Structure formats: structure tokens, C-alpha cells
Hints:
It is a single chain. The chain is mainly alpha-helical. The protein contains five helices and no strands. Helices cover 73% and strands 0% of the residues. The chain has two domains: 7-42; 64-107.
Amino acid sequence: MKVGQNTNVEMLAAKLQQNAAQQAQQKQNGTASEVVQQTRSNAAGVPVTMSNSARSLDQNSKTSSDVDMAKVHAIREAIANGTFKVNASVIADKMLVDASALLGLSRA
Length: 108
């Protein structure tokens, strides 16, 4: 490194030039949402039909949840209050059941 040479300034200048070039390219191409909208408007429309069972699955997924949010909130409160207790034996038992099921499936 030469005395008086400031590589940080040179790196910053290079980065600024790179950013300016990227911004110019983005202005030329348009924003991502503009590109998506153009693609949607240019795409040929293909009719899609859904079966009744697919519609019912879609409705069920909107109304039911895989997560019990009441339980999640209760656990969060217990953790925040410092009253949440971990039952190590229950966790160990479930881990053993899962491991034995996994090993049973891999042997079959």
C-alpha cells in the first residue's frame, strides 16, 4: 500500500458507481411490480376450473388453522411470566416414539 493512498475512498467511489449503474438499469427496466403487471396483462388467459372437492379444501384451509393460537398465546404468557415449566420426561418419551417410528419406517 502506498503512503497517502486511501483504499476506503476508492472502494466507496466504486460502490457508488455500481449503485448508480443499478439504479439506471432499474429505471430502464421498470420496478418489479410494473414488470409483474405487464407480464400478467400480456399473458394469454387460460380458463381454470376447480372441482367441488378442491373448493371445499380451500374453504376448510381458510377457516381452520393448523396452529392453536390460544395455546400459543397461553405459552407465550407463561414464558413471559416465568411460570412455564418444561417436562423433560414427556419430551424424551415423544422423541423416543418419533425415533422408533422413523427407524421402523426406514427398515421396511
